[in-house]
């Protein structure tokens, strides 16, 4: 019984020691005293690139499944005339300015069906938006 407890304690101690060693080698733990100027710059750059990626995701409608057409899963079913209306009627979510087409449409496939991805850009605040459409 005691042998089992001691054996378990030894195994736990070894695992903790390995974890601490790996932490130290990879600098996983971020403590204020570990932050030199270079590290802070690296962290800020990482933060910025993460924010940039998140902004790209928001602009492309990924991760913010709120409005119809923002994601492939919420794509809008539309015929040619409705697509023309969608093209003309988009407004910037930020400043409500009418959006302009930005670049050619993309033809995609999602869940075994063709999708059209329309790209827009706000002429005022330069915010981008993409709209997923299922052509009918
Ligand atoms: Zn705008």
Helix content: 40-55%
E-strand count: 5
Class from helix and strand fractions: alpha+beta
Kindly, what is the distance between the CA atoms of the first and last residues, rounded to a whole number of angstroms?
72 Å
Number of domains: 2
Please tell me how large the radius of gyration is. Answer: 25 Å
Q: Ligands bound here?
A: zinc ion
Secondary-structure element string:
HHEHEEEE
* Arithmetic mean pLDDT: 81
Beta-strand residue percentage: 15-25%
Task: Please give a structural write-up.
With 136 residues, the protein is an alpha+beta fold. The chain folds into 2 domains: 57 residues, no CATH class; 69 residues, no CATH class. The protein is 43% helix and 20% strand. It is elongated and about 80 Å long. Zinc ion (ZN) binds next to loops. The site of zinc ion has 8 residues, from loops.
Structural topology:
Blueprint: H1 2-26, H2 37-60, E1 76-78, H3 80-89, E2 100-101, E3 106-110, E4 113-121, E5 128-135
Parallel strand pairs: 1-5
Antiparallel strand pairs: 2-4, 3-4, 4-5
The structure holds zinc ion.
Features:
alpha+beta, 2 domains, 5 strands, binds zinc ion
Question: In summary, what is this structure?
Answer:
The protein is α+β, with helices and mostly antiparallel strands. It has helices spanning 2-26, 37-60, 80-89; strands at residues 76-78, 100-101, 106-110, 113-121, 128-135. Strands 1, 2, 3, 4 and 5 form a five-stranded mixed sheet that branches.
